Amino acid sequence: MAKSEHHERYSWWLNELDSLGIGTLDKNGLNNHKEASDLTEAVKQTLYEEYLQAYSECLMTLKRMSIIWTALKLHIYSLFTRTLHFVAPVFVLLFESKPNDDIVLQ
């Protein structure tokens, strides 16, 4: 099929390639709509695979960040509870004592 035989189909595929960022210099070797169609589908498949790879890498990064955030929250909670166990008796002694009492830590 020559360009002139199916000009509408061929032009459509060339426009499709333009929308995918394939310039006219890259398309000079295309002789018919089948070659243009095959190239368009190959470019679309490549872009889709790159998208999937980038998306999965992004998801893995988010999962890692979520795991790190959870570990950080647990660590902060652990530090807080350990500090609270140490500090709470001191506060009890402070609030139960009278102003002139000597405070003795055990």
At a glance:
The protein is mainly α and 106 residues long.
Q: How do the helices and strands line up, and which of them pair or pack?
A:
Elements lengths: L6 H13 L4 H4 L5 H64 L10
Helix pairs in contact: 1-3
3D shape: rod-shaped
How do the SSEs run, as a string of H and E? HHH
Average pLDDT reading: 76
Q: How many H/I helical runs?
A: 3
What is the CA–CA distance across the termini? Answer: 97 Å
Q: Summarize the amount of helix as a percent range.
A: over 70%
The helix-and-strand class reads: mainly alpha
Largest sheet: none
The Cα radius of gyration reads 35 Å
**Beta-strand content bin:** under 5%
Task: Give structural notes.
Helices cover 76% and strands 0% of the residues. With 106 residues, it is mainly alpha-helical.
Keywords:
106 residues, mainly alpha, disordered N terminus, rod-shaped
